[in-house]
Amino acid sequence: MDNDLRELYQDVILDHGKSPRNFHAMANATNNALGHNPLCGDKIDLFLSIDKNNVIQDISFQGAGCAISMASASMMTEMLKGKTTDHAVKLFHAVHNMFTSSETDIKDCSVSEDDMDRLTALSGVKEFPIRVKCATLAWHTLDSALNNKKS
Ligand code: ZN
Question: How far is the CA of 151 from the centre of ligand 1 (A)?
């Protein structure tokens, strides 16, 4: 593994990739979406339980894919549990910006220091354009899930 790749697979990503948090199905989910990254073969099935005050009471996922896609999804669930859907949307846009432009206006969305560390680890992926889709898959799936209420 060369140095760049070593940097990409920082400890935090490896850790989350190896033992993803909130990795299970959810029987009482209010929102659900399936995400697929055909470039790499990553698949994520995302579950949300959102209460009437638009607070994400629970969030979990299942799926299979590379360490980056699993780590990204795992970190995302940790960042969003207990947060409002408004916050989730803001974070989605911040992450999207982080990967698609040279600027990061992540400060605008009241991200905690812990979350910032997670996103910074993930942002190393920018050096490898083909892996960006792996890193953003969970977030795009989140966007779909927020708009996909189960009847
Ligand atoms: Zn991948």
Answer: 31
- pLDDT tens track of the chain, all 151 residues? 456 655 656 788 888 989 999 999 999 999 999 999 999 999 999 999 999 999 999 999 999 999 999 999 999 999 999 999 999 998 998 888 888 876 655 655 667 777 877 887 888 888 888 899 999 999 999 999 999 887 6
Kindly report the pTM of this predicted structure.
0.88
CA distance 16 to 44: 15
Three-state SS for 114?
helix
User: How many Å lie between the centroid of ligand 1 and the Cα of residue 16?
Assistant: 14
Residue 22 near residue 61 (C-beta atoms within 8 A): yes
Q: Is 4 exposed, middle or buried (0-12, 13-18, 19+ CB in 10 A)?
A: exposed
How far is the centre of ligand 1, averaged over its atoms, from the C-alpha of 103 (Å)? 24
Instruction: Give residue 39 CA to ligand 1 midpoint distance, Å.
Output: 7
Q: How far is the CA of 69 from the centre of ligand 1 (A)?
A: 5
Q: Give 2's contacts (C-beta < 8 A, 6+ positions apart).
A: none
